[in-house]
User: Which sequence fits this backbone?
């Protein structure tokens, strides 16, 4: 394995980690506020479709991103309505949202484009182009560092940089602002927040809305950055890998970045090599596919660094009467 | 306009039959109170809780689905008529409806049993996949003399594999407090990877490109409805995949009902589901109940593979479950976690599946419409339950005030 191969794998790791990271941070905001969200997958899928559809019709990728965020926010609103207003089961609501997105995207895609549940391939302008960072070309000749800067850090689409900037931003919002403190408190002990005169319902809706925006960007990136267009079920379980990464990161932003990069690396390796020959035995590609899930179960089991979720997670808040 | 009238008639008839059946059942077994919010039971009569709430949810889901059909430029009445014609008006249509219903009975019961212990088993899909592996191993490697013995053997295989796949999440929930919803989701993906590996690398016959096992031997093939009910003069259920497994599913409904309301274990499961602390105080071990309830749940989900793998495909293919594990969630919610309710809801979803296939065949409405309807049913009967329940409770309270 030479430097070039390693760089190619790492480059594809960054691309594949981006949607995971955005969805993972989305789940982070929601779950930190006490709203479990297993509907990340569905929101990403809906956003991916609407982003591709609007980008394809209008020819502007940014209108596509806005449409994706809008679609994801609608599903977030349903989730909020069910789990905050009507105090329903958050997990069941998430399951319903996943199916709703899975069915509606194909239904609308078939109605709009009649291409078997996909959108037309996006032309230039309808999708994100790679951004070349300053000096990338001139520095390429520098040994080792030059190619790393040119291939790995430069040359991604705008949303990749957005995703990575979201990590410090999320950390700052959650751990350095009053809003963040209250948001985390509402996920641990909503009664205390209520006693302090802050609206539990308002905070939780805000968290669910942030989750919707981030899932929207994640989905839009899938359809307009990673690939050029929407195909049915294109999220392919990424929402659940993001959920796994969230547990792996124990609900913390910086660890979320590391977890998503790790799971992105696993995806990149599984994509490039089918079976990995370790000499003694061969690692089948299916093992690489299943590894994020296996790791999450191990972490959940608490044998290696126990993951403890926010205490009030999954429970609707009922004001004392 | 004739078709509109006919459609309404069918709908009313179906509603009346289902309603009457549930009402009768409730009258007969009132003491087997169905789990719901503890407060609702006092404010509303039991029949409203068991029949009215799901019925209104279903109507809401139907209205929204009709709007979706109008939205994509099709006629909802014509679509519904086509679905009824294709799924219920011919014996072969019934053959498909009951075939799908068989799957949904098993997975619905699986979710329902776990619900009674207040566990949300979202892993029916993975447990059913592993159940398929159990069926395949039993059918391929044991020389069976007759299908009836093979059915018994593969039922044991399917239930064992399904139950074992539920064992690890159950144990982790009981012992380590790992959230069972997350672990069972993860186990669905792991099951898909395991099955993929086994089919591609181990069980695929040589020189075959298809990731599937060899065909099961002739002696393990189950009799279909067409074999059982056709006479020399009239062919019934021609070409439909419904088979003898349907009766196993009905037996499973009865068995779950007996288990939950007429055995000590069932009482313990329900007590644990109602209040963990009370159950603990009564000497019921939470670890034992969690594990046992999940083993039963996983076993039921695994049994689904009898129908798809041994009954229909007669070999194990990739994605044999086709999402039936998830539909079990909708079925259990719709059926209020009662075996009889699960049975009716499974027939309803079987009808939707067969009707949806007809729609995809004859109109521009894709099969995914069924996924949307399924989502709406889960949303209204599961997550937005209180939205339907709260106004209803108010209505009943108002009535009661007038009387008193």
Assistant:
């Amino acid at each position: 394995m030479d430097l070039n191969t390693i760089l190619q794998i790492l480059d594809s790791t960054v691309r594949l980690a981006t949607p995971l990271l955005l969805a993972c941070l989305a789940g982070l905001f929601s779950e930190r506020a006490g709203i479990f969200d297993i509907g990340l997958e569905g929101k990403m899928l809906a956003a991916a479709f609407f982003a591709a559809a609007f980008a394809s019709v209008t020819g502007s990728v940014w209108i596509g991103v806005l449409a994706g965020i809008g679609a994801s926010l609608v599903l977030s609103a349903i989730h909020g309505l069910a789990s905050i207003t009507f105090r329903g089961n958050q997990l069941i609501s998430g399951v319903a949202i996943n199916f709703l997105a899975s069915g509606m995207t194909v239904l609308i895609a078939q109605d709009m484009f009649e291409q078997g549940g996909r959108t037309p391939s996006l032309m230039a302008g309808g999708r994100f182009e790679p951004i070349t960072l300053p000096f990338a070309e001139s520095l390429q000749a520098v040994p080792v560092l030059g190619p790393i800067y040119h291939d790995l850090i430069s040359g991604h689409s705008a949303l990749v940089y957005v995703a990575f900037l979201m990590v410090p931003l999320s950390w700052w919002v959650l751990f350095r602002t009053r809003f963040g403190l209250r948001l985390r408190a509402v996920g641990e002990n909503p009664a205390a927040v209520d006693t302090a005169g802050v609206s539990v319902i308002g905070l939780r809706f805000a968290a669910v809305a942030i989750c919707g925006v981030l899932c929207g960007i994640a989905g839009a990136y899938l359809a307009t950055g990673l690939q050029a267009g929407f195909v049915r079920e294109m999220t392919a379980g990424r929402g659940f890998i993001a959920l796994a990464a969230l547990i792996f990161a124990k609900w913390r932003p910086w660890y979320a970045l590391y977890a998503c990069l790790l799971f992105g690396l696993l995806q990149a390796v599984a994509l490039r090599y089918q079976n990995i020959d370790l000499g003694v035995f061969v690692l089948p590609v299916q093992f690489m596919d299943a590894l994020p899930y296996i790791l999450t179960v191990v972490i959940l089991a608490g044998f290696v660094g126990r993951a403890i979720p926010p205490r009030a997670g999954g429970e609707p808040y009922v004001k004392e009467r | 306009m004739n078709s509109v009238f006919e459609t309404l008639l069918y709908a009313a008839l179906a509603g009346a039959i289902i309603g009457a059946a549930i009402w009768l059942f409730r009258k007969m077994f009132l003491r087997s109170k169905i789990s719901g919010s503890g407060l609702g039971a006092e404010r509303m009569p039991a029949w409203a809780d068991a029949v009215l709430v799901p019925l209104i949810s279903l109507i809401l889901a139907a209205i929204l689905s009709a709007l979706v059909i109008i939205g994509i430029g099709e006629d909802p009445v014509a679509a519904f008529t086509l679905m009824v014609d294709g799924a219920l008006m011919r014996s072969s249509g019934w053959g498909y409806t009951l075939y799908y219903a068989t799957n949904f009975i098993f997975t619905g019961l699986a979710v329902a049993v776990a619900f009674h212990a207040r566990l949300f088993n979202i892993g029916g899909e993975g447990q059913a996949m592993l159940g398929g592996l159990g069926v395949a191993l039993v059918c391929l490697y044991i020389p069976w003399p007759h299908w009836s013995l093979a059915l018994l053997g593969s039922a044991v295989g399917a239930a064992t594999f399904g139950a074992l796949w539920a064992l690890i999440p159950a144990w982790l929930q009981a012992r380590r407090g790992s959230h069972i919803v997350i672990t069972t989701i993860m186990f669905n993906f792991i099951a898909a990877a395991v099955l993929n590996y086994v089919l591609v690398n181990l069980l695929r016959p040589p020189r075959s490109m298809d990731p599937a096992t060899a065909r099961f031997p002739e002696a393990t093939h189950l009799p279909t409805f067409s074999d059982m009910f056709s006479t020399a003069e009239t062919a019934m259920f021609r070409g439909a995949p419904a088979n003898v497994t349907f009766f196993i599913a009905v037996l499973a409904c009865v068995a779950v009902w007996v288990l939950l309301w007429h055995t000590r274990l069932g009482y313990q499961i329900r007590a644990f589901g109602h209040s963990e602390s009370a159950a603990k105080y009564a000497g019921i071990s939470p670890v034992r109940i969690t594990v046992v309830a999940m083993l039963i749940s996983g076993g039921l989900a695994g049994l689904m593979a009898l129908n798809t793998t041994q009954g229909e495909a007669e070999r194990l293919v990739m994605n044999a479950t086709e999402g039936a594990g998830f539909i079990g969630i909708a079925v259990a919610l719709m059926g209020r976690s009662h075996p009889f309710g699960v049975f009716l809801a499974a027939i309803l979803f079987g009808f939707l599946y067969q009707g949806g296939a007809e729609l995809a065949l004859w109109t521009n409405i894709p099969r995914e419409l069924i996924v949307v309807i399924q989502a709406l049913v889960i949303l209204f009967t599961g997550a937005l339950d209180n939205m339907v329940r709260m106004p209803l409770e108010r209505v009943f309270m108002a009535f009661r005030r007038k009387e008193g």
